[in-house]
Design goal:
This protein is mainly α. The chain has a domain of 88 residues. The chain is built from four helices and no strands. It is rod-shaped.
């Protein structure tokens, strides 16, 4: 993507470009993750809606449903853990830098210390690139976690569809069997 360097601050355009690039790369990584997981889920679907599945395909789908769900739940827990760890890394780095700025300010200006909001802004300004990398990781892992949540919910819906198709097939088979045993002769 031909992105130009943003110019928000005249004294730090390179930092801001790096920040934008960091977020763009995180977004690209997330999109690849989503595309890969969707492809894997499509492989787990035993029919794509083009035709009515037979008993064999339905039985196979019903038997394999739980193993796919267990795999999704594993991914869900991994994604939740990764998101928590990423947030913890961000929070720890931010806290460390906050204390550094606060301590430095107290040493340089013992009579008039900076307000908390001023310290926060100084931390962000001084650590823009590192914070962007950590925040991009937080955003990426949180979005992966949310996406896996949606996959789990979608897979639960697939269970309903499988059950409905199974009941419909059973009813159709029963009706066909009744019609075969009691043919209508038109009189």
């Amino acid at each position: 993507m031909g992105r130009s360097k943003p110019v928000f601050y005249e004294d730090t355009p390179d930092e801001l470009y790096t920040v934008e690039k960091t977020y763009s790369e995180a977004e690209e990584t997330l999109i690849k993750f989503v595309e890969k997981k969707i492809a894997q889920m499509n492989e787990s679907l035993l029919f794509n809606g083009d035709d009515t599945p037979g008993f064999g395909k339905l039985n196979q789908a019903l038997m394999e449903y739980e193993s796919v769900m267990l795999g999704l739940l594993t991914l869900h827990q991994e994604a939740r853990f990764k998101a928590s760890v990423a947030q913890e890394k961000y929070d720890n780095f931010y806290a460390e830098k906050f204390i550094e700025v606060k301590t430095r300010d107290a040493t340089l200006n013992p009579k008039k210390m900076m307000a908390a909001k001023e310290i926060e802004m100084a931390v962000r300004k001084e650590n823009m690139t590192q914070l962007a990398k950590l925040k991009a990781d937080v955003l990426e892992t949180e979005n992966e976690y949310n996406f896996i949540n949606h996959l789990v919910e979608s897979w639960k819906g697939y269970q309903f569809i499988l059950g409905t198709l199974s009941r419909n097939s059973q009813a159709e088979a029963a009706a066909t069997g009744v019609a075969y045993q009691n043919p209508y002769d038109g009189n």
